[in-house]
Give the backbone structure.
Amino acid sequence: MTIYVGNLSYQVTEDDLKRAFAEYGTVGRVQLPTDRETGRPRGFAFVDMEKETEEAAAIEALDGAEWMGRDLKVNKAKPREERNPSRGGGGGGWGGNRGGGGDRDRSGGGGDRDRSGGGGRRY
């Protein structure tokens, strides 16, 4: 029974979450993902509760509640979506021509500079 907790304060700790959810039942694991670069919390967490009745009570009581200056978003966690292997790795990167300067596309569709007679290279 895993609960998603969103809109968390960046100052929240795993112990804070354990104490808050312990009021509704037995808390198992608490995951508080952190940013890889800064190491600070990302503003959401996952809390495992032992029983469905405890999970339901925590969601009912805490969804929309103000805690640490933020209105919490609390609901049953959805299974993580599998990534599509045909799409390759994650996003990011700077590949391809994104309209910056330099040589233009050889297909002729690279912008007005190629056809204006001044500037740009011709192919």
About this structure: Confidence is low (pLDDT under 50) at residues 102-116.
